[in-house]
Amino acid sequence: MLVLGIETSCDETAAAVVDESYTVHSNIIFSQQDHARYGGVVPELASRAHVRTLVPVIRQALEAAGIDFAGVDGLAATRGPGLVGSLIVGLSMAKGLALARNKPLVGVHHLEGHIFSNFIERQVEMPFLTLLVSGGHTELILVRELGSYQLLSRTRDDAAGEAFDKVAKLLDLLPGEGVVMGGRIIAELAERGDPKAIDFPRGLVGEIDFSFSGLKTSVLNYVRGLELRERKRQLPDIAASFQEAVVDALVDKTVMALGQTDIKAICLAGGVAANQRLRHKLRAEVERRDLPFYCPSLALCTDNAVMIGAVGAFYLNRGVRDGFDLDAVPRLSLC
């Protein structure tokens, strides 16, 4: 079974061809370049860019897989959560193709896609725990089996990726053009800094839920107390200390969840899973407890259609189908 996956939940226009064994036959991503000047993704610009680029992206995905549309056995598209205008573009395209060519269709939860990202390159023994960290979500999810999820904890305010972007903005680190990538900029700057230089708060110590708004405010107050020259001198230390506070919170609460579950593996997923400091510290803590640790390759951490196609293949192979009344749900809950 070959499934065409379509992902348009935010500002990445993506299409991929995946089969029922989660083998990737193609993976095409168009990253929008128009948002950085505004300090964040502009929903209207994002949806208009999807309208312009989705058809050529799908064509490239089919060509790279060596098939035409007749070779597609089913379609999968992200139905939520995400920006409603962006979601509607991808979902409408999938419904139109499915209707025109009489192909089965399934709508995919974006976060379930991130959970599946670890199955594309390996087998993971179940039950397992996934730390899902992205620009919009920070959650610990217990996976007893694929398709069955239990939410153990979530952020009470900012997501980890959102905190990275906001701190990058208040430190004036975001470029005037190109993609918005606050997390990557802070991580690169942090390599030259001392993670112990500033004792920023970890947030909700002793509780399994996450909180990053207080940390963000602490960084803001610290920076406001510095003269411009001193602020520039301390930027690497500020970035490293902030990153360490985020990573410590993520790792500590994941370890806390281990005591509440009977699991066989730990997985890391989502855009912030690309952070090397997080990957290193979480791996060390998990392996110290004699558990296997998995995280996707960097290309599968951020939004992509491979993970959407993999979820689609899983459900379509089990006979699950959605009707053409399927709608986009911007605040869709996973569990």
Overall description:
The chain is α/β, with parallel strands linked by helices. The protein folds into 2 domains: 2-115 and 300-316, ATPase, nucleotide binding domain (Nucleotidyltransferase, domain 5); 125-295, ATPase, nucleotide binding domain (Nucleotidyltransferase, domain 5, 2-Layer Sandwich). It is built from 9 helices and 10 strands. The protein has helices at 43-65, 84-101, 110-116, 160-170, 182-190, 213-224, 228-258, 276-287, 305-316; strands spanning 2-7, 12-19, 24-31, 74-80, 105-109, 128-133, 138-145, 148-154, 266-269, 293-294. A hairpin with a 4-residue loop joins strand 1 and strand 2 (12-19). Helix 1 runs parallel beside helix 2. The longest helix has 31 residues, at 228-258. The model has no long low-confidence stretch (mean pLDDT 93).
CATH topology of the largest domain: Nucleotidyltransferase, domain 5
Strand order of the largest sheet: 3-2-1-4-5
Tally the structural domains: 2
Which CATH class of the largest domain applies here? Alpha Beta
Please, what is the CATH homologous superfamily of the largest domain? ATPase, nucleotide binding domain
Mean pLDDT: 93
| Number of continuous helical runs | 9
At CATH's second level, what is the architecture of the largest domain? 2-Layer Sandwich
Helix content: 40-55%
- How large a portion of the residues is in β-strands, by DSSP E? 15-25%
Largest sheet: 5 strands, mixed
**Helix-strand topology string:** EEEHEHEHEEEHHHHEHEH
Uncertain regions spanning at least 5 consecutive residues: none
Roughly how many Å apart are the termini?
28 Å
**Radius of gyration over C-alpha positions, nearest whole angstrom:** 20 Å
Which structural class best describes the helix and strand composition? alpha/beta
- What best-fitting shape do the alpha-carbon axes yield? globular
The tally of strands reads: 10
